[in-house]
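Exercise 3.2. Students should predict the tertiary structure of the chain below and write it as structure tokens, then compare their answer with the key that follows.

Predict this chain's 3D structure.
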Amino acid sequence: MTSEKGSLAWALRVTVPVAMGYLPLGMAFGAYSVSLGFAPHLAPLTALVVFAGSIEFLLVGLVAASAGLAQITVTTLLVNARHVFYGFSYPTHLLRTPFARFYGPYALTDEAYALITSGVRPTTERELMLIQGVSHL
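Answer key:
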């Protein structure tokens, strides 16, 4: 693997600082969800499906408290409303394939957004999808 821009090695290198934050948060989320009585395998499954750190923590708390679907929905919308503003500088012009148009917005986290809009600045769909995909993984 080379470390040329757009390669998997490059994406791994630029996302490592983000992963350093994901690991302790993931461990804390796992411990928190298990402490609320959820099975250990549900924490990584929730992280894979929900993929929004702040909502992951709130979701398990709300489910543990037997919150209704409406309360969970409104809470999720209010907490994630900040993502609307990310669209102003997110490079949507790079999203050319149907997969990228679906996955790009789905995989947009605060951390990936920081990478994308900072010094990394992807210039191709491949670079953008690698940053978001590796961050998601």
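Discussion points: The chain has a mean pLDDT of 89. The CA atoms of residues 95 and 101 lie 5 Å apart.
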